Amino acid sequence: MEVPKYLEKATIDDLARMIEGLAEELWVTKDRLFVLEEVLAGKGTLSDSTVDEHLPSERLQAVLRRERMRLIQRVLGAPQMDH
């Protein structure tokens, strides 16, 4: 398996920063999701299928695209970041 070009000169610290960044992003997302689901369920406005069946608006799709790119740049760009 060939190593991606951006990892050819990566150090263990670089890889650790990538993993740490991804873990931070994942936890923040999960934490907020759990809180939102609890609040909405408590108000009776969220059922088990609500999220799965929802079709995002064009505005939300644009936000999701922007945030996806931000996450990719933060995680995969970690080897180029100076810490």
Structure explained in plain terms:
It is a single chain. This protein is mostly helical and 83 residues long. 65% of the residues lie in helices and 0% in strands. It has three helices and no strands. The protein has helices at 12-42, 50-53, 58-76.
The tally of helices reads: 3
Radius of gyration: 17 Å
Strand content: under 5%
The major pleated sheet works out as: none
H/E element sequence? HHH
How much helical structure, as a percent, in the residues? Answer: 55-70%
Q: How many DSSP E strands? A: 0
* Average pLDDT for all residues: 83
Rounded to the nearest angstrom, the distance between the terminal CA atoms is: 29 Å
Derived structural class: mainly alpha
Given as residue ranges, the uncertain stretches (5+ residues, pLDDT < 50) are: none
The general outline is: elongated
